[in-house]
Amino acid sequence: MKKAEQKNINKNLLKTQTGIQGFDELTNGGLPAGRPTLVCGGAGCGKTLFGMEFLVRGATQFNEPGVFMSFEETNEELIKNVSSLGFDLEGLIIQKKIALDHVHIERSEIEETGEYDLEGLFIRLGYAIDSIGAKRVVLDTIESLFAGLPNQLILRAELRRLFRWLKEKEVTAIITGERGDETLTRQGLEEYVSDCVILLDHRVTEQTSTRRLRVVKYRGSIHGTNEYPFLIDESGFSVLPVTSLGLKHIVSNERISSGIPVLDNMLEGKGYYRGSTVLVSGTSGVGKTSIAAHFAEAACKRGERVLYFCFEESPNQLMRNMLSIGIKLEPWVRKGLLQFQATRPTFYGLEMHLAVTHKAVNTFKPDIVILDPINTFVIGDKEFEVKTMLMRIVDFLKANLITALFTSLTSGESAIESSDVGISSLIDTWLLLRDIELNGERNRGMYVLKSRGMANSNQIREFILTDHGVELREVYIGKRGVLTGSARIAQEAFETAEVLTRKNDIERIKREIERKRKALEARISTLRADFESEESEAVKILETEKEMIKRLEQDKIEMAVSRKADIKKQRRT
Amino acid sequence: MKGISIMGTKEEKQVREATDKWVLRLYVAGQTPKALTAFTNLKKICEEQLDGKYSIEVIDLLVNPQLGNEDQILALPTLVRKLPVPVRKIIGDLSNTERVLVGLDLLPDS
C-alpha cells in the first residue's frame, strides 16, 4: 500500500521514506526503493546512526522490517549505543522487526588457499532477510572486509555481485563507507553503488563543529544539492532543509502588546503584529533584555507560550535581574508557559544553533520566540553566515506565525542604524535604544526606527528602568537639544516655576484691576454724594426763592388790602 | 554432500575429549566445483598428514544457513580447525597445499 501511494507521487522512481526528520523532504520522498544507497563520511559523522535510524523508523513507522549487518560493532554494543537515542532495538529484535548480524573477521585467523567467493556472506544476509521478511538492509561498514580479506580482486568482484544481488532482492539498502583522502570512500565503493550517494560531514570552523549532509548523487530524482546541517540528539537524526520556505508565509493582522503601554502607544496604540519580527538594538546596558522580558511576561499573561533563548545569561540570573525591575518570570516557567534555552553561542556551530532552534520550536510550539542577543553569533568574519542563519530562523518562525523578538548589541562607534549583523532588511519592527550623554550624565533614549505596516510614532522617548518595569517618558527637544535625566528634571522644575510665576502675575493683575475698580467706584460715590448735597442745596434755595416770591405777592396783596384797593379786580388780572 | 558428514555431535564430544584428534569443519554452499575441489584437497592432506586421527564435518550453508554465524563464515569454501585450539580458518579451495599446512600448523618443525 505504501508503495502504491508512493507511485502516485513519483512515477519515475519509487522511494522509500526514511522517517528521518527533514531528510525525506530534502530528497522528495526518501531513498531509492529497492536500491542500495551509499552513505559516506569521516569517522564519527553519524553514518551508523543514519543507517540505524533508517531501520528503526522503517520498522516502527512504515512496517518495513530491516537487517543491520555490522562489520564493526557487536550486537550488544549496537543495542547499547542506540538506546541512548531512545531506540529499543532489543524489543524490535524480539518482535522480529529488526535483525542484527555482527560479522567479524580476524585477519590473523584467516589463511587464503586458492579460489573462494563470498557466498557465505550472501547466505547469511539472505537468511537474515528471509527470516524477518526484511525490506531494508544496512551494511555498516562493509569496507572492513578489505582489512580482513587479502585478495582485493575477489573482494571487488564479490562486492559488485553483492550490490547486484541486493537489487535483485528488492531491498532498500544503505551501505556505509569511510571517507577517503581523494575519493568519497577509501575503497572506492562509489563505483559499485551508483544510484544514490549521501555525504555526511563533520566540520570544525572557529573551534565549533557542525554536522552537514549533502546528497552528492541521486540518479533519476531531483534533490537539494546544498549542504544541509543536521543534528544528532536524544531523539535521533534531524536534517534541516535550508531555505525552501521562500516568502509565501501567511500574515496576521492581529496585534499583540509589547508589555509596555507607552511603547504600544508608539505603535499605533496596539503593539506589534503577530508573526512579525522585532529587533531591539542598542549599546550595552541600555535595557534590551528588559524590553524582551516585558514582552515575555505580557505574552505569558495572555496565556501564550514563550521560548526564550538566552545566549549570555543563565536563566536564573536573568530571572533575578528582571525581578529587580518588577518583572516576575519565574511563575510562568513553573506553569510551563515560559521556557528558557540557555547555551553559549560558541557551544555549537551556527547550523547547529539553527537546528537546535528548529527542534526546540517544534517541540515546545511557542507563540513567541526571543533570541537574546543575536550578535554574539558573530565571532570572526562570519557575518554572511550569521545573516543566512538568521534569515532561515526568521523564515521558519514566520512560516509558523510565531512572533520573534531579537536583541542586538551595537558597538558604540559603528553607525547605530546599521545593526552589525546586517539583518535590518529582515526586521519588521525595529526599536532602537541609545545612550544620550549630556551634562555628565548617561541616559537612555528609545525610538521606533521602523515598523512595517503601521504609522508609528517618530518621537524619541526617554527610557527609564524603575522597580516596576520600564517607563517611557517624553524627552525635551528644544534649542538646547534633547534633554534627559536630571537635565530633563531641571527643565521640568524650571517650567513648573515659570508656570507658577505666570499664575502669580495673573493674580496680581486681577487684584490691581479690582483695586482700581474699587477706587473708581469710591470716587464715583463721592462725586454722587457731592452732587446730591449740592442738588439738595439747590432745591432748598429754589424752595426758599419760591417762598420769597409767594411772600412778596402775599405782601403785595396785603398791601393792597391795607390800601383798600380793588382786590377782586387785581386778583382777576 | 550431506552424506559426507562424518561426525555427529555426540561423537564430536568424544573426539574433543581425546586431545590428539583433529576436528575440522568445511563450510560450503552446494556442490560447486570449488567445494568439491576443496573437499578432495582436504581429504588428501588429512590422509597424508593426520593418519586417521581426524574428523571432517561438511556443512552446507544452502541447507542450514543459520550455521554460518557461529564460525563467522563469509568466504566459501572455508575450512575451520575447531580442534586443536586455537581456532584457525582457511579460506579457498585448499589447492595450495603448503598454505593449507601453514594454516593448520602442520608444517614440519612447527
Question: Could you give a quick summary of the protein structure above?
Answer:
The complex is a heterodimer of chains A (573) and B (110). Chain A has 573 residues and is of the alpha/beta class.
Low-confidence stretches of chain B: 1-8
Give the CATH H-level superfamily of chain B.
Glutaredoxin
Provide the domain count of chain A. Answer: 2
> How many angstroms separate the termini of chain A?
155 Å
Shape of chain B: globular
> Mean pLDDT of chain A, nearest integer?
82
Q: How many helices of chain B in DSSP terms?
A: 3
What is the total tally of β strands of chain B? Answer: 4
Number of domains of chain B: 1
CATH architecture name of the largest domain in chain A: 3-Layer(aba) Sandwich
Question: How do the strands and helices of this protein lay out in sequence?
Answer:
The complex is a heterodimer of chains A (573) and B (110).
Chain A: H1 2-9, E1 15-16, H2 23-26, E2 31-32, E3 36-41, H3 47-61, E4 66-70, H4 75-83, H5 89-94, E5 98-102, E6 110-112, H6 119-132, E7 136-140, H7 144-148, H8 152-168, E8 172-178, E9 196-205, E10 208-218, E11 227-233, E12 236-239, E13 255-256, H9 261-266, E14 272-273, E15 277-282, H10 288-301, E16 306-310, H11 315-323, H12 330-335, E17 338-342, H13 350-364, E18 368-372, H14 383-399, E19 403-409, E20 429-438, E21 441-451, E22 461-466, E23 469-474, E24 476-478, E25 481-483, H15 485-562, H16 567-572
Chain B: H1 9-17, E1 22-28, H2 33-50, E2 54-60, E3 78-83, E4 88-91, H3 97-103
Parallel strand pairs in B: 1-2
Antiparallel strand pairs in B: 1-3, 3-4
If you had to describe this structure to a student in words, what would you say it looks like?
The complex is a heterodimer of chains A (573) and B (110). With 573 residues, chain A is an alpha/beta fold. Chain A has 2 domains: 2-239, P-loop containing nucleotide triphosphate hydrolases (Rossmann fold, 3-Layer(aba) Sandwich), CATH 3.40.50.300; 255-480, P-loop containing nucleotide triphosphate hydrolases (Rossmann fold, 3-Layer(aba) Sandwich), CATH 3.40.50. Chain A has 16 helices and 25 strands. Chain A has a 9-stranded mixed sheet with strand order 5-4-7-8-3-9-10-11-12, with helices on both faces. The longest helix of chain A is centred in the C-terminal third of the chain and has 78 residues, at 485-562. The termini of chain A are far apart. Chain B has one domain: Glutaredoxin. Chain B has helices at 9-17, 33-50, 97-103, and strands at 22-28, 54-60, 78-83, 88-91. Chain B has a 4-stranded mixed sheet, with helices on both faces. The longest helix of chain B has 18 residues, at 33-50. Chain B starts with 8 loop residues before the first helix and ends in a 7-residue tail after the last helix. Chain A binds chain B through residues 101, 103-105, 109-121, 123-124, 126-127, 145, 148-149, and chain B through 27, 29, 34, 37-38, 61-62, 65-66, 68-69, 72-78, 86-96, 99-100, 102-103.
